[in-house]
Specification:
The chain has helices spanning 20-35, 53-63, 72-76, 90-102, 117-130, 144-154, 186-189, 193-208, 345-360, 370-389; strands spanning 2-3, 9-16, 41-49, 67-69, 83-86, 106-109, 134-136, 161-170, 212-220, 225-227, 245-247, 253-260, 270-276, 284-292, 296-300, 306-310, 320-324, 393-394. The protein is globular, with a radius of gyration of 21 Å. The chain folds into two domains: 2-139, 3-Layer(aba) Sandwich (Rossmann fold); 141-404, Dihydrodipicolinate Reductase, domain 2, CATH 3.30.360. Strand 15 and strand 16 (306-310) form a beta hairpin. Helix 8 packs across helix 10. The chain has ten helices and 18 strands.
Length: 407
């Protein structure tokens, strides 16, 4: 890192895996200067790694990295790289996360950080030992409407929170001809929709309300076979005609009953959480409904720039009012001048990059961190145990999460 006379700090960026998410991280770093010019942070795209030569070339020719390699270790060993984005498939996250920490590189890693609690804990321990800053790809928490919902809860404007209902319903695998990518293989992905979508939902609930302490879960696999997709080709949205059928090894659907911690903002609250990757109808219906003694609110990613807020008891209009995201809600004003002009998914990643790099520079630490990932992984792993035992399972408190720091 280098700080110029005008106070601008240049941070060398490395990227591991140049797929869709790697491209998104790269755009987020590039767009940071436009959304947050006052921060005087200038990411410099230094070194990218991908074993696919075409993607490595794309990193240089399209994304703007100065150089590219086939081996991720070359990025970690590059002295000009200060921070690294880890966007590889799930089964490589823990290996690369531990390696990044041991190399002394601050890292921004996509979720799930590991295939369950055990691998996530390994990364957390490595990061703590190395003293590096971590940030996790829990992008939905950065939506301005979600930030506003979190404020409403923390300020008690919904009263005592009684229950929460959350869902993450996607259709990316609703077609039975949908490709059997690594996401459906237990040895590569670990669990299925629990890690892929439920982990996001757990983080969203814990960020807005507080830690989940107990779960009772069930899971199901809707399509037990799918046509195989060769590793490194296509995406998990691919549809294959007349392919060789192979077994699906993890779950398509998961549901949980949850109890929140007694020391949370929603002390004593209960709830239901569901996730599906085979829903027909919802495209990306990711959201939560929060109910309190004096009001309620609900948010859905498919209408990301809206929050529906009840008028509360005794109000003349006691039903829901649609509130549109506006300047003053989260970081909305950094992207759009007024309500009605929508932010998008990519903007949430710019916010994520900003929070990550602020923490790296020792400024305000508003980023999701490896402790948040560990907390979500513990809940998901408890859900797996519960689905097998058909009983309630505990999730231990995790210190240092942003769920433990209220607004």
């Amino acid at each position: 890192m280098q700080t110029n006379e005008d106070g601008t700090t240049t941070i060398g960026v490395g990227l591991i895996s140049v797929g869709w998410m790697g491209q998104l991280h790269s755009r987020a770093y590039t767009n940071l200067r436009y959304a947050y010019p006052d921060l005087k942070i200038r990411p410099r795209l230094v070194h990218a790694a991908d074993p696919a030569s075409a993607r490595a070339e794309e990193a240089v020719e399209v994304l703007g990295y100065e150089r590219a390699s086939a081996d991720y270790r070359d990025v970690l060993n590059d002295p000009e790289v200060d921070v690294v984005s880890i966007c590889a498939p799930n089964f490589l996250h823990a290996e690369i996360g531990v390696a990044a920490a041991r190399a002394g590189k601050h890292f921004w890693i996509e979720k799930p950080v590991g295939r369950g609690e055990h691998e996530t804990r390994e990364v957390a321990e490595a990061a703590a030992e190395a003293g590096v800053v971590s940030s996790i790809g829990f992008n939905y928490r950065h939506a301005p409407a979600v930030e506003y919902l979190r404020e409403l809860v923390a300020e008690g404007r919904l009263g005592r929170i009684t229950n929460v209902r959350g869902q993450m319903f996607a259709d990316y695998s609703a077609d039975p001809r949908g490709a059997l990518s690594w996401r459906f293989v237990r040895g590569l992905a670990g669990n299925g929709v629990l890690g892929d979508l439920m982990g996001h939902l757990v983080d969203l609930v814990q960020y807005a309300l507080g830690p989940i302490r107990e779960v009772s879960a069930l899971t199901s696999t809707v399509y037990v076979e799918r046509p195989e997709l060769p590793m490194g080709t296509g995406t998990h949205f691919a549809v294959i005609e007349d392919g060789e059928m192979k077994p699906v090894e993890n779950e398509d659907y998961a549901a949980m009953l949850v109890r929140l911690s007694d020391d949370a903002s929603a002390s004593g609250a209960v709830g239901t959480l569901e996730a599906s990757r085979v829903a027909v109808g919802p495209r990306a219906s990711y959201g939560i409904e929060v109910y309190g003694t004096e009001g309620s609110a609900h948010w859905d990613f498919e209408r990301m720039n809206e929050l529906h807020l009840s008028g509360g008891l005794g109000a003349e209009n006691q039903g829901y009012t649609r509130i549109m995201a506006r300047p003053g809600m989260g970081d909305f004003g950094r992207f759009q001048p007024g309500a009605g002009t929508a932010m998008g998914y990519d903007d949430l990643k710019v916010i994520e990059a900003k929070k990550f790099l602020q923490a790296v520079l020792g400024r305000e630490a508003l980023n999701s961190n490896i402790q948040d990932a560990l907390s979500a992984a513990q809940v998901v792993t408890a859900a797996e145990r519960s689905a097998e035992s058909r009983g309630w399972e505990q999730s231990s408190p995790v210190a240092g999460t942003t769920a433990s720091t209220r607004v």
